[in-house]
Amino acid sequence: MKGGGALVIVGLQWGDEGKGKVSYLLSRRASYVVRYQGGANAGHTVVVGQRRMKFHMLPAGSAAGAAPCIAAGCVIDVRRVLEELELLKQLGYGDRLYISHAANVVLEEHKALDAHMEEARGSPIGTTRQGIGPAYADRALRAGIRVEDLTDSKLLDSKLRLITKLHGCERLTSSEELAQTAGSLAKYVADIPVLLNDAIRNGEHIVLEGAQGTLLDIDHGTYPYVTSSNTVAGAACASCGLSPRFIESVVGVAKAYATRVGSGPFPTEELGGEGQLLREAGGEYGTTTGRPRRVGWLDLPLLRYACMLNGVEWIALTKLDVLASVEKIKVCVAYVVDDGEISIASPHVLARGSVKPVYEEFSSWNKLSTEEARHIAAKGWDELPTTMREYVESIEKMLGIPIRLASIGEETGLEVWR
Ligand code: IMP
């Protein structure tokens, strides 16, 4: 059979766009779903009926039955991987996981260093304190512990000694204990590039699931207020060992408004009562840390830039239901900067100085009950409240990219396809 390929799912904002649900929906017909960057800083939620599942390490699409993979570009929290594997077993998917031998392992030392660095900075980043930055730093220093090292306690011991020496930090990990807990991962270690390339050659479909979002990309985001990996779609190929020739589509996930956790520029932030209404209606509290998220309006200049960086083919627009909590919806359509107005903006523009958002206003719609949302999802696009349809169609027009999926509730099934 011919015609296999990979589809990349990428967040277009500052994370928490609802990639978990979208990955679940798009992984239903995939053989494999792969996490390609980040670690347990991510929190992808999937709600199926009464069941709410949270994934920090495993790709959320694995809840739909695609075989889970963790690629080389990830940093691994071993305990979380084992916990989430148990969740998949409870769902009836058996004991199935493919994990790259080259993925790096996050240690307690990395978490302590993460906290220490946050305290040492004049202006903290507001990290998730999951040890992500220090783990990626050790990888770049070629001092990192890789999954392939986990069964060799002597090697682990010498690597742990190097890490504590390099950072002058306290040793918190026992090599024997690490080898024991992590040893249970040994049977899942796989050659991910061979696995995925073979699958594609056999005509199978693969989903590559990103974490965080484009504006948190270490190179293209609002540096230094970013995560420590490349989150953009292009990073998926390097992490998975897949040629860009095999990417058949890039799907961008954007929330119908904007949120951000941690510090850094956020031009459309809504600090007043409407922000609070959206936060409550949208449950905008961190999946990993429980922190209240900063909330604001959809930002088209940044979204246009994110779509360009990722080569987005179509967009899944999520959490439209949440906007029913406000009467008037604002959308930032351009920025006023020193030398005029711009309609597309690199996050770099934000670091340079202040920008003034130019807003357009839209009318909201009445809150939908779950029953109403189910009815609409069953009937399709034309059944959406008129003002909601106008909102989505206007954004689509202003972006020039199709919005093929509109999510109108957290639960899978509460979405409309076009
Ligand atoms: P780190 O990835 O824990 O180092 O955090 C760096 C920045 O990325 C902080 O602003 C975090 O709040 C943010 N961040 C990391 N992971 C996520 C996520 O999954 N969703 C939203 N923000 C995130």
Number of helices: 13
Number of beta-strand segments: 20
Q: Which small molecules are bound?
A: inosinic acid
Shape: globular
Report the β-strand fraction as a percent range: 15-25%
Chain-averaged pLDDT: 96
Query: Roughly how many Å is the radius of gyration?
Result: 21 Å
Distance between the termini: 28 Å
Short structural summary:
Helix content is 33%, strand content 22%.
Structural commentary:
The protein has 418 residues and is α/β, with parallel strands linked by helices. The longest helix has 15 residues, at 153-167. A hairpin with a 2-residue loop joins strand 16 (328-337) and strand 17 (340-342). Helix 3 packs across helix 4 and helix 5 crosses helix 6. 33% of the residues lie in helices and 22% in strands. The protein has helices at residues 19-27, 78-90, 108-120, 132-140, 153-167, 175-183, 192-201, 234-240, 273-282, 300-310, 347-352, 370-379, 386-399, and strands spanning 5-11, 32-35, 44-48, 51-55, 67-70, 75-76, 98-100, 104-105, 189-190, 205-209, 247-255, 258-260, 294-296, 298-299, 314-318, 328-337, 340-342, 356-363, 403-407, 415-417. The strands form 5 sheets. The protein has a 10-stranded mixed β-sheet with strand order 9-7-5-2-10-1-11-15-19-20, with helices on both faces. Strands 14, 16, 17 and 18 form a 4-stranded mixed β-sheet that branches. A two-stranded antiparallel ribbon has the order 3-4. The protein contains 13 helices and 20 strands. The structure holds inosinic acid. Inosinic acid (IMP) is lined by residues 14-16, 41-43, 125-128, 130, 132-133, 211-212, 216, 225, 227-228, 261-262. Inosinic acid is lined by residues 14-16, 41-43, 125-128, 130, 132-133, 211-212, 216, 225, 227-228, 261-262.
